[in-house]
Design a protein that fits this description.
The protein is α+β, with helices and mostly antiparallel strands. It folds into 4 domains: 240 residues, Neutral Protease Domain 2 (Neutral Protease, domain 2); 182 residues, tricorn interacting facor f3 domain (Immunoglobulin-like), CATH 2.60.40; 177 residues, Chondroitinase Ac, Chain A, domain 3, CATH 2.60.220; 83 residues, Sandwich (Immunoglobulin-like). The chain is 17% helix and 39% strand. A hairpin with a 2-residue loop joins strand 19 and strand 20. Helix 6 packs across helix 7 and helix 7 runs antiparallel to helix 8. Zinc ion binds next to helix 6 and helix 7.
Length: 843
């Protein structure tokens, strides 16, 4: 579902007056797949705590007792414009247990006239207008089948924003999912059913309306009957099983437009349901649907439904993925391509959500994350790889910047807390994580296994654990760490290069040792086996890319590079969604160069030849100051890193913005929430901090210019850094008595081993055996008396001793170290590190 809500008043206004001729400027503002108004309304709802945690009504359990096989629904819809439905539904079912004598069906706020089984009336209780409790004729035994016919009528319910049955002007239609109701499925607003994610039934629809209107439903149109009272009954049938939230009808004066796409399994009929005034615009707006269809079939497998259908309806809160009969807002059928990602999203649901369905709402990311990823895939298929990349990057920025603000904290994807099922994390971070999974698995295995997954789970529900196990088995890549890190835990990892050392082998090759550090952005534990791309470049911008398996707080990676690297960078192409947004440019001219993902703008004064410049915006606290400056507080929220291949003559002026405002509504992605903890009072005492490398301490950069942009208390402004330099920048503020938020303790395992001087050839040190058990030997020749220290990968010093000058040999008992990789450091009395090695201990 793509959601955007409007208030009731707004709703009516839009419906009747505006949507037929929307001006471009008046287009509803969409935040991802919702309108801004929709998000505001949901957020208010959440803030008022109207959702109790994990309180979904247990309709799922009823599916263990009885299987609802088929619905044959006969309804007169609209009956003129009196906004009612009336008729009956035949529910065919099978008992899954012995001695089942009652059938409980969800049905919301309608009037039940009678219930019939085998031609005989049954007793029933519908006193709560919520569950229709039917006493069957006799107790059923396991595998017994039967059918009841429920006669009912009434004015069907909707939740005023998203979900239920809507009547508007010439239109009557349902929306199968609600943001607010419990359970979220809304099948019960128009027919008796089990409103859960696991029950799947076939459907037959006999929808009767006046002769000027037609009814569009899931499945295929079998026939139409002209009734003696002048009405027409439209008979549709859906042979594939559906859960209730994707079944539906739409009634209006449609002039449907038909098309056919040639799919993997043959021709697929396409039906655009629109009133005549909208048909041309609708076709134009869907100009790229066929390309999208082929691209999705190529990547997810054959389209699994018997028709493609989108119905343009006066529904202004968003769209809903009814299988082959999508509820699509009229305003998005405007002739432009402005809302393309909206139909791409709903179309993606035809695999993710409709064909394979999450087990319950706490697993909602299994459909929404994949539908948003389908938007990215749409951009890739229609507009190319760069378009995919830029949409992933924009989404990633939102995930880091706003998800936790909107969702009142950092949430795992599964289980998603009930109060924020339809929050931002469900959509934004989920899609980020699917993109990252693509990187973990590599395209051929990723898409190959997705295809076989949806086929093997066709028309069934699934959980995150089942997806994990299936994809692991299919690809041969264990995804346990991936799911523990990215899906079952909140927050993000952050990866950076502390330092790298180059040793010339003398044969054209260079041995490069890179120290990769992991820090955490609200994640509960370090991530493991993250496949990160590490790129080296020499001063002529020749580059070489290596895939590094990164685990824990510090990963030491050694490789041979066929040139002398002067630059090392992680994940330049943003294939892993860690807590960094960044971009790089090759700069050839004196000009303005903006780095929106790096949140830095730049004006280049001088550049000789060309420069390679990368700007990172890091969404975690910078390292603390080594030596504190009284009353100076570093940002706990972010820092920048500027890096690249720059000649000495390169000179540029950069600007960064600070914004500690809590912009309301939170849903407008307009730049606030960046320096909330830092700027709590006035801005006057802000300063810019700079350090050239991780080993250096922060210093105040005085060559800057502040533009407070308005008042000194609005917490917003612009800072010019007159001469940008490679290194790290962050903000700090002088403030007496300010209490910093809790700083994540910094592991220094990567710190301890930086700044190694090249030791002289005489200082040969060897460690053996390696791997070791119980004991290993350090042997060699030291020019000075030195200190031996051994660290765990967590940076904890577990052993130290002095080593004599000259030829020496020392046995180290390591039987109590435990098993793992340990870092050995030998430094002289001046604290110069002269040896750094790893030893693997297998006790
Ligand atoms: Zn959706």
């Amino acid at each position: 579902m793509k959601k955007f809500l409007l208030s009731v008043l707004f709703f009516t206004f839009f419906l009747t007056k505006v949507f037929s001729q929307i001006e471009e400027d008046n287009r509803p503002v969409m935040i991802g797949e919702w309108t801004q108004d929709a998000l505001n309304e949901l957020r208010n709802y959440e803030l008022n705590q109207k959702f109790e945690k994990h309180n979904f009504r247990a309709t799922t359990q009823r599916s263990d007792t009885i299987n609802l096989l088929h619905f044959d629904i006969h309804l007169t819809v609209g009956n003129g414009l009196n906004q009612t439905i009336a008729g009956y539904s035949i529910v065919e079912f099978k008992s899954l247990m012995n001695n089942v004598s009652q059938l409980y069906l969800d049905l919301l706020k309608l009037n039940v006239d009678s219930v019939i089984q085998n031609g005989q009336p049954l007793t029933f209780n519908y006193s709560d207008s919520t569950i229709l409790k039917i006493n069957l004729q006799s107790a059923m035994m396991q595998n017994d089948s039967s059918a009841v016919t429920v006669y009912y009528h009434g004015h069907p319910f909707n939740d005023n924003s998203f979900g239920g049955v809507y009547f508007n002007g010439d239109f009557g239609f349902n929306v199968g999912m609600s943001l607010y109701e419990n359970p979220h499925n809304m099948g019960r607003t128009w027919h008796p059913c089990y409103d859960n994610f696991v029950e799947r039934s076939t459907y037959e629809f006999h929808i009767t309306c006046d002769s000027q209107r037609m009814a569009l439903c899931n499945g295929a149109l079998l026939d139409t009957a002209h009734n003696s009272d002048g009405t027409i009954t439209w008979h549709w049938k859906m042979n594939e099983t559906l859960p209730t939230f994707i079944a539906g009808f739409a009634v209006s004066k449609f002039t449907p437009v038909h098309d056919t796409f040639n799919g993997i399994n043959g021709p697929v009929p396409v039906l655009f349901g629109a009133i005549s005034a909208d048909t041309t615009a609708m076709k134009n707006s869907f100009a790229n649907l066929e390309t999208c269809f082929h691209y999705f079939e190529d990547h997810y497998g054959a389209y699994p439904w018997n028709k493609i259908g989108f119905n343009c309806l006066p529904f202004n809160s968003g769209a809903m993925e009814h299988a082959g009969s999508v509820v699509y807002p009229q305003f998005a059928c405007d002739g432009s391509l402005y809302y393309e990602d909206l139909y791409a999203h709903e179309f993606g649901h035809h695999w993710w959500g409709d064909y394979v369905t999450p087990y319950d709402p706490s697993e909602i990311w299994l459909k929404e994350g994949w539908a948003v990823f389908s938007e990215f895939l749409f951009y890739e298929g229609v507009y190319g790889a760069a378009s995919y990349k830029s949409h992933v990057a924009d989404n990633h920025e939102i995930a880091l910047h706003y998800d936790h603000v909107f969702d009142l904290g950092y949430c795992p994807l599964s289980p998603m807390p009930a109060y924020t099922i339809f929050g931002r994390t469900t959509y934004t971070k989920s899609a980020d994580v699917v993109h990252t999974l693509r990187t973990y698995m590599v395209d051929s295995l990723f898409f190959g296994c997705l295809k076989s997954f949806v086929q093997s789970h066709a028309f069934q529900n699934y959980t995150s654990v089942e997806l994990r196990d299936y994809l692991s088995n299919c690809s041969g890549i264990s995804l346990d760490n991936f799911f523990n890190d990215w899906v079952f835990s909140a927050g993000f990892p952050h990866f950076s290069i502390d330092s790298f050392n180059v040793a010339d082998q003398g044969n054209g090759w260079y041995t490069v040792t890179t120290y990769i550090r992991q820090r955490l952005d609200h994640a509960p534990h370090f991530y493991h086996h993250v496949p990160l791309e590490l790129t080296f470049m020499n001063d002529e911008m020749q580059s070489s890319v290596y895939k590094v398996d990164v685990s824990g707080p510090c990963t030491v990676y050694q490789t041979a590079v066929p040139f002398n690297p002067v630059f090392a960078g992680l994940d330049l192409e943003n294939k892993i969604s860690d807590a960094i947004t960044d971009e790089y440019h090759v700069i050839k001219n004196v000009a303005t160069n903006n780095f929106p993902q790096g949140k830095m703008n730049m004006y280049v004064y001088t550049v000789n030849d060309s420069a390679f410049l990368r700007v990172e915006h890091n969404w975690i606290a910078p390292d603390p100051m080594k030596v504190q400056i009284p009353n100076l507080h570093l940002s706990q929220e972010r820092y920048w890193r500027v890096d690249g291949i720059l000649s000495d003559s390169f000179d540029a002026k950069a600007s960064i913005q600070y914004n500690g405002s809590n912009v309301q509504p939170v849903t407008s992605y307009n730049g606030g929430y960046l320096d909330r903890a830092l700027i709590t009072n006035v801005e006057d005492s802000l300063v810019v901090m700079y350090r050239p490398s991780v080993s250096a301490d922060w210093q105040i950069d005085t060559d800057v210019l502040f533009n407070y942009q308005g008042s000194h208390t609005d917490k917003k402004g612009l800072i010019w850094i007159n001469h940008i330099k490679p290194g790290e920048y962050t903000l700090a503020i002088f403030q007496h008595n300010k209490v910093d938020s809790l700083i994540t303790p910094v592991s220094d395992s990567c710190f301890t081993i930086i700044n190694v001087k090249d030791f002289s050839p005489e200082e040969k040190i060897s460690i053996y055996p390696n791997p070791s058990q119980n004991q290993f030997t350090i042997e060699g020749n030291l020019l000075n008396q030195s200190t031996l220290e051994i660290f765990s990968l967590l940076g904890e010093k577990i052993y130290s001793q002095n080593l004599p000058k000259g030829i020496m040999k020392t046995k180290i008992n390591c039987g109590n170290f435990g098993t793992g990789i340990f870092l050995i450091r030998i430094s002289d009395s001046e604290k110069n590190i002269i040896v750094r090695k790893q030893v693997i201990i297998q006790n």
